[in-house]
Write a structure and sequence with these properties.
Blueprint (H helix, E strand, L loop, with lengths): L27 H18 L1 H13 L9 H11 L1 H5 L9 H17 L3 H20 L1 H6 L1 H6 L11 H18 L5 E3 L2 E4 L2 E4 L7 H18 L3 H32 L9 H22 L26 H10 L2 H11 L20 E3 L14 E9 L2 E10 L23 E12 L5 E11 L9 E10 L2 E3 L2 H13 L6 E9 L3 H28 L2
Helix pairs in contact: 1-6, 2-6, 5-6, 5-13, 5-14, 5-15, 9-11, 10-11, 10-12, 11-12
Length: 533
């Protein structure tokens, strides 16, 4: 472990720790106060976005590292103070168009209520604003610390479903290779000693994010070439993924061999972190063996002239930055002031149907786990001896607490006491009006029936955004943002059609029949609800 060390010398021709008295360029006397004032101005303007980011750091263990990112970035800049003191800060006009694009990015994210987009835009605004005032030369010297700030943005949970699927695939494969029979359905599997599920905490996304952040910092501090740094960053992303697969397999094996006395409950999380810690320390120890020696400090030279620089050289650029960073908020206020609308009335949906599928009394027993809709509609339908259901969650005047696309919204949550989702997919059909409809599909299984038996639901679902139809969450968010930007409001809905079906193909045919017959009428009624804003 003695070979693992973080060299505090700057990796690229660093200057001594501090500039000599009188050696700093005089332009810094004005540039520093201006850049600090500008950063404070941005944080005050976008305080709600900044506070939302901090709140995620507080409540989510996955992103707690966000608290240390700004201090680390500040320390990295402080290490370069000797070199920076010899540079002449001067405003960079090329940053102005970039600030406009980032501001539009923030506005679209705000209109669609996407935290990751607005928070990425906020950090990008801070970085671009600093470079706009201090100039390209200064920005080049502090480029890594500025880019390191993006690790403070709590983004990465979108990888969770994929990582969970990979973990389940590896665990089942490893168990079978060990000679243990496995029955698998979705993310749930049964072995002779008990049943297991790959849930969100087993995805390994927190290991991946933590390893990637620390690995990137390690590579910057210990290597001098871009190639070696990139290789280590890639390794720091791959190692936690594979380590999480091994962790899951080891935990299941511990439970199996101990009669479920070990690695049960909270224990498997503790064992997981211990295993991850050992793996990451080994990775750094190995990486440290190829560390580059510190580069020799570059010789100091006198500042290039003593003429006034910084903000004084081009004050119009600085003034433009102060104005441009405020424009997205002004645009947001203007758009939201035009969107006041009454709560939606979905009573007209009750008659939607067809000659073949007739609405009947009583609401379906199952509903998706979507939170905070402005209105809901749920209806049972009958065709001969067959029954099915339609559910609509309608959203209007969405915000961060009440929105259609959210990480907390799902057909079935992993801790649902009654249902589990065992399969997902997509399907395409043509409705009675000749329109092609692409939908997401899912198969739900009732927990009381176990994995191999029991009741199930075949589910089709999609999004309706002001008349646009998609089953893609990213496109749904984009449609919502564009619709609000054009002044058309943000009326959106989740459409879910479901039916009992075992085997699954039987339920699929029932759902498809109801969709083909009822969707044209239901879509027309949704448009009328939208027009009554």
């Amino acid at each position: 472990m003695s070979d693992l060390k973080l060299d505090v010398a700057a990796p690229e021709s660093p200057a001594p720790a501090a500039a000599k008295p009188g050696g700093a360029h005089p332009a810094w006397r004005l540039a520093l106060p201006v850049v600090f004032l500008l950063l404070a101005w941005i944080l005050v303007l976008y305080r709600e976005t900044a506070l939302a980011m901090v709140n995620i750091w507080v409540r989510s263990e996955t992103f707690t590292h966000g608290f240390v990112v700004p201090p680390i970035a500040a320390w990295l800049i402080w290490r370069q103070r000797g070199r920076l003191a010899l540079l002449a800060p001067s405003p960079a006009p090329w940053c102005l168009p970039a600030l406009v694009l980032v501001g539009l990015f923030w506005l679209l994210g705000e209109l669609a209520a996407v935290n990751a987009v607005t928070q990425l835009a906020l950090v990008a605004t801070l970085v671009l604003a600093a470079v706009a005032v201090l100039g390209t030369a200064v920005g080049r010297n502090i480029g890594f610390p500025l880019l390191f700030l993006f690790f403070a943005v709590p983004v990465g949970e979108f990888l969770m479903p994929t990582l969970m699927e990979w973990t389940a695939n590896f665990t089942v494969l490893a168990l079978r290779a060990t000679g243990i029979p496995v029955f698998r359905e979705g993310l749930h599997f049964v072995i002779p000693s008990g049943s297991w599920s790959v849930v969100e905490a087993c995805s390994g996304v927190r290991y991946l994010i933590a390893s990637l952040m620390v690995g990137t910092l390690f590579a910057y501090l210990n290597y001098n070439t871009t190639g070696k740094r990139l290789v280590f960053v890639v390794v720091s992303a791959l190692v936690p993924i594979v380590a999480n697969w091994l962790r899951a397999y080891i935990i299941v094996m511990l439970g199996h061999l101990s009669g479920n006395k070990l690695a049960a409950g909270v224990d498997h999380l503790i064992y997981g972190w211990l295993f991850f810690g050992v793996v990451i320390m080994a990775m750094f120890w190995i990486g440290g063996r190829w560390s580059d020696p510190p580069l020799a400090p570059a010789a100091e030279s006198k500042p290039a002239g003593t003429a006034p620089g910084g903000a004084a050289r081009n004050p119009l650029v600085v003034v433009a930055v102060f104005i441009l960073v405020a424009l997205p908020l002004a645009a947001q206020f203007f758009l939201e002031s035009r969107e006041r609308a009454a709560p939606p009335d979905l009573s007209s949906l009750a008659g939607a149907g067809s000659a073949a599928w007739v609405p009947e009394g009583g609401a379906p027993a199952w509903r998706p786990a979507y939170e905070g809709p402005a209105a809901e509609f749920a209806q049972r339908y009958r065709k001969g001896e067959v029954t099915a259901g339609i559910y609509v969650a309608y959203y209007r005047d969405q915000d961060y607490r009440h929105k259609l696309i959210s990480s907390t919204n799902a057909l079935v949550k992993s801790n649902d006491p009654a249902w589990r989702q065992v399969a997902t997919g997509t399907a395409r059909t043509t409705d009675a009006a000749g329109n092609t409809l692409e939908v997401g599909t899912a198969q739900l299984r009732h927990r009381e029936g176990g994995l191999a038996e029991g009741g199930g639901l075949a589910v089709w679902h999609w999004f309706w955004i002001n008349g646009y139809v998609t089953n893609n969450e990213i496109l749904a968010k984009a449609y919502t943002a564009i619709s609000r930007l054009l002044g058309r409001g943000d009326d959106s809905a989740l459409i879910v059609v479901f039916a009992d079906g075992l085997p699954p193909q039987g339920g699929k045919s029932v759902v498809e029949s109801l969709v083909q017959a009822a969707w044209p009428d239901l879509a027309a009624r949704l448009l009328r609800v939208r027009e009554q804003r």
